[in-house]
Amino acid sequence: MSARETLAKILFYAPILFLKLFISYLRFAHRRTWAVYRFRKTLQKNGVPLQVARELSRMYEQSARLRSIVEKIM
User: Fold this and answer.
1) What is the pTM of this model?
2) Domain coverage including residue 61
């Protein structure tokens, strides 16, 4: 395989791989954002004030341990 063929393969497959990676990133980011939103709405539905719900959802987003505890409860 010559250098030209190798370069052609790289230039052909690189955009496809980049697109796959980008789509998987967007799916992950959307799923995490949706989980934080759902957590905040659940708190508000149960009578937690808006400011407290916002602060708890911010903590929920930043803390993996808190997320795992909440997911076990919900």
Assistant:
1) 0.48
2) 3-73
